[in-house]
Write a structure and sequence with these properties.
OB fold (Dihydrolipoamide Acetyltransferase, E2P), globular
């Protein structure tokens, strides 16, 4: 089996850092990933909001240097997390990051949404 995911997107909020009881750093990143596609002559845009979990020193680095609006490239694996809430089974998918790469500089007040939107073209980082 093969479970690998590569995403480029913008952080929707600052990273949330916490520590496990054994002292391992865990950061949660919320990523907005935009995609555009055509249906007939209509150009449509879709945004997915994806939770990403980062561990160890990389989690601390993400917390220190990343902030809302920053563009990142995340490589990792997809995982389903399950829990029970009020007697109902719940689940969600999230990415467990093996690598987080900072793309571009930090977002400034003078940047517009156009400046932080991923390009339309296919890049050489895609594995297909």
């Amino acid at each position: 089996m093969y479970n690998r995911i590569i995403l480029i997107g913008n952080l929707t909020k600052d990273p949330e850092l916490r520590y496990t009881p054994s002292g391992v750093a865990v950061a949660t990143l919320r990523l907005a990933v935009n995609s555009r596609y055509k249906i007939g002559n209509d150009l449509r845009e879709e945004t997915l909001f994806i939770d990403t979990v980062v561990f160890g020193k990389q989690a601390e680095t993400c917390n220190q240097y990343l902030g809302k609006g920053r563009k990142v490239l995340v490589e990792g694996r997809l995982q389903e997390r399950r829990w029970e809430s009020n007697g109902q089974q719940r689940s969600k998918f999230e990415v467990v990051a093996s690598t987080v790469r900072f793309v571009g500089g930090p977002k400034s007040d003078s940047q517009t949404e156009e400046d932080i939107t991923p390009p339309d073209e296919v890049t050489d980082i895609e594995p297909f």
